[in-house]
Amino acid sequence: MKRKIFFTVIFALFLMTSQVKAIESQSNENVSSEAINQLIQELGNSNTTIKSNAAKTLVDIGDPVVDPLISALNDENYDVRENAALVLGKIGNETAIDPMISALSEQEWDESQEEEEFGRALGTALGSFGEPAVEPLSEFLAGKEYSSSAGHAMAALELIGEPAVPVFVDLLYTELRVESAYHLRMIGEPAVDYLIPLLDDEDPNVQGRAAEALVGTSNPDVVEPLTKLLDDDNEYVRNMAQHALESMENQYPQESFLYGREREFFVEDEKREWLSSLEPIVKGRSEYIMPYFYPDGPVIGYGLYYKGYLTVDLLIGSEVNDSYMAEIYSVIDEEALKNGVEEVPVLFSYTSMPVEDVEKVEIPDVLLGLTTDEGASRILLPAGFMAVILIILVIGLLLSRKK
């Protein structure tokens, strides 16, 4: 009898699960506008979990929510605007590209944090559309000088990568040449073939920026044209050509190595909370990693990157194998577990010393663990920099006492 009841219950659960799946499948096609609008408003909820769940559901529903999300780009709640942009990027329906670029251009960029975060979300989302977004972004940037909105559009193009290279090359002839050279350098090797002809351009500004964009390349085809520029009449062109050639002589591994588990974020508050959970791991003197720092070890930088992981900078030329990186990671992972973070993501990469004769110095805790949205906190700082900071602090104390 008990066995019969058991199988009856199991069969009933199976039927219920099948019905739920059928309802979910049907709801994605016939979900009501009221339900969609409710989900969109939840993107502005003060509870991050509710926001994230709403975003995931909207992504799962897909195309039926695109038009309401486009309307939400003008919502009064800035959280709704920001997260609507990110959801549109994850859905990937190309009809959202032009409205998102319009939202970028219509913004009154008052440099407030909220407006800047919305612009960054638009840039991130537009970058996820790939090649279909290249031409509209190019048209948006035509004839513009640098602004926050132009910066976010260019960041989107960098995310797109190789298909956007011709746009950046064209922008080298405009007021946006400085930023374009930077983004071309970030794209890297796919841009090299486009940049080599520009080293012979009539405009020295274009020549110099093209040489600057080639800093870090290992392509031997650039050696001859760069060498010719070492005797150029323009000092800037000569300096950039020399810098690019020197970077080839001091070539170091371009690979980065990610340990742990990278997280996916559906709303920005998720990422912000995640970054906050990582901050205690890198704050203070981080004694657990100091034995690996130069000159005793290969590490010259350790910090928190805004994309959601810790970074370990390894000195160029260091003999670091997989087992050694795994050893460093295990030390960081152990510290992360103490702070409740499992499988903490850590990115290892190679770089050079920021200045010559960098020394390890005692750094006040208040100056350690500082983070920004566009950079990382660092443990190792030049001694000269610290001297200036300490002088400023002393002068400030003396002035405060006089008051």
UniProtKB/TrEMBL annotation:
Keywords per UniProt: Membrane, Transmembrane, Transmembrane helix
Membrane spanning residue stretches: 379-399
Source organism superkingdom: Archaea
UniProt cross-references to Gene3D superfamilies, sorted A to Z: Leucine-rich Repeat Variant (1.25.10.10)
Entry's Gene Ontology molecular function annotations: oxidoreductase activity
InterPro entries per UniProt: ARM-like (IPR011989), ARM-type_fold (IPR016024), PBS_lyase_HEAT (IPR004155)
Name of protein: HEAT repeat-containing protein
Natural source organism: Methanolobus tindarius DSM 2278
Source lineage: Archaea, Methanobacteriati, Methanobacteriota, Stenosarchaea group, Methanomicrobia
